[in-house]
Amino acid sequence: MGIVTPGFFGKHREADPKLPPGQYETKDFPVLSAGPTPNIHDGEWAFSITTETGEVTRWSWDEFRALPVEDVHTDIHCVTRWSKFDTDWRGVSLDTLFEGIETSAGYTMAHSFGGYTTNVPLEDLLGGKAWVAFEYDGEPLDPEHGGPARLLVPHLYFWKSAKWVKGLSLHDSEELGFWEVNGYHAYGDPWKEERYYYDS
Amino acid sequence: MEWAVADVVGIREETPTARTLMLRIPGWKGALAGQHIDIRLTAPDGYQAARSYSLSSAAGDELAAVSVELMPDGEVSPYLVRGISVGDQLEVIGPLGGWFVWRPEQTEPVRLIGGGSGIAPLVSILRTHIRSGNTAPVKLLYSVRTPEYVYFSDELDALTAEAGAEVAIQYTRHAPPGWQGTIGRLDARRVTDWAEGDQNASTYICGPTRFVELASDALVAAGVDPATIRTERFGGA
Ligand SMILES: Cc1cc2nc3c(=O)[nH]c(=O)nc-3n(C[C@H](O)[C@H](O)[C@H](O)COP(=O)(O)OP(=O)(O)OC[C@H]3O[C@@H](n4cnc5c(N)ncnc54)[C@H](O)[C@@H]3O)c2cc1C
To answer: A–B: how many Cβ contacts below 8 A?
Structure first.
């Protein structure tokens, strides 16, 4: 516990077990990005997985949309301390995308339109833990929130859920992505408050 | 880096709803222009709330300064703007953030676009620019409701004169007597007209989310390379 701030009592006091430490609940859907919102034209979107040996598997938008979809109901947690409960998404599971992929790599880097990157261990994307989502709350994903499609990795801080995602590359060793080289934690577990690089 | 206990050593009223807090932070080694700190408040029963605030002080300053706008139904900002006094203590961690920063080694022209409290990190950039003797052109487009909501009003002129900076203020509700410019919300046209001309400039846009979206979308639509635009979204609508 820190020093007591005289006269401060706080507002968002519910001790909700769904709320990771240091977070508060918001009903809004705040937008955080490092730069402008990219405007991705119809037909421009495609998704690829590039293995550590350089093999590329690519889905056009139509091919991607022909894959089986899943509905995801989940809480999300942003490193800037808001959490949003009971959000609804629709997307393609990473398990589906990885079905035909041969790899022994342990690490992935997500790449986005606009140049954003973020690193995630492969095991954190598989086993029903991650999706490439294209709908939020029954509507096509807003550009502000990453539309046409974003990564959704709800068990990590939300900067790992790369907006405007266009591919994953697989790596034998861990490299750091955009925010991770700019002072944020390499892994980002909200329950351990792994916010900044020194929160080891 | 750990949470540190900072002393509030100075407070300045910026506008009817905003204050600058000057903080002495043990072990503070300065920050890069554009970085922020997190401030954490603790209630008597241990309940804590933390929020991010951009530094308005220059990169090398001994004291850290933050400028906070009151959100009427907010949790942390009302306390920082109305509750705290010189001599009180706060917990802080930082400096944080390595992207929305300006370094004196940068030689390209700089465009700064701020709305409301989004002026804070831009003033830090201006101050740092002056301090470093950097000669790259810099200009500021600042959107505020009315003259009384201009942060740093007594310093802004001197600061921009010293930086050789051009300042354009956009009053969204009403302007000072004799004002020649337009009044009203910033629109895409105003942003792109203002931005025209600086080849290879870096642009820093900071303020409430919707403001940042408007300004950055306008520049991108006008052909500015998105990779040259850095944004800091303070939240809200
Ligand atoms: C990197 C970073 C730097 C920041 N720097 C500054 C700064 O220099 N000065 C400053 O005043 N704020 C700054 N902010 C915003 C600040 O962190 C808080 O969000 C703000 O003070 C509101 O906190 P609160 O606890 O009072 O309100 P909360 O209890 O968190 O929220 C109350 C309501 O206010 C809304 N809200 C939050 N922020 C805004 C906003 N900017 N505009 C409109 N509505 C909003 C919320 O959506 C919510 O509905 C920064 C945010 C970030 C992410």
So the answer is: 101
Q: What is the ipTM of this complex?
A: 0.76
Nearest to B91 among A2, A13, A30 (CB): A2
| A55-65 as b/e: b if 16+ CB within 10 A | eebebebeebe
Between CA A155 and CA A195 the distance in angstroms is 14
For A17-44, letters b (16+ CB in 10 Å) and e give eebbebbbeeeeebbbbbbbbbebeeee
Question: What is the rounded radius of gyration, in angstroms, for the C-alpha atoms of chain B?
Answer: 17
Measure B231 CA to nearest chain A CA, in Å. 5
Interface subset of A 19-48, CB within 8 angstroms of B: 22, 24, 28, 30-39
What is the C-alpha separation between A20 and A164, in angstroms, rounded?
26
Report whether A30 contacts B52 (CB < 8 A).
no
Chain B residue at shortest CA distance from A9? B43
Say whether A2 and B48 touch across the interface (CB within 8 A). yes
Angle formed at CA B205 by CA B91 and CA B118, multiple of 5 degrees: 40
The structure tokens listed for B236 are 């809200």
* pLDDT in single tens digits along all 237 residues of chain B: 789 999 999 999 999 999 999 999 999 999 999 999 999 999 988 888 999 999 999 998 999 999 999 999 899 999 999 999 999 999 999 999 888 999 999 999 999 999 999 999 999 999 999 999 999 999 999 999 999 999 998 888 888 888 888 889 999 999 999 998 889 999 999 999 999 988 899 999 999 988 999 999 999 999 999 889 999 999 875
How many residues are present in chain A? 200
Query: Which residue, among B117, B159, B116, B155, has the nearest Cα to B139 in the 3D structure?
Result: B159
CA distance A145 to A200: 29
Indicate which atom in ligand 1 lies nearest the CA of residue B97: 1
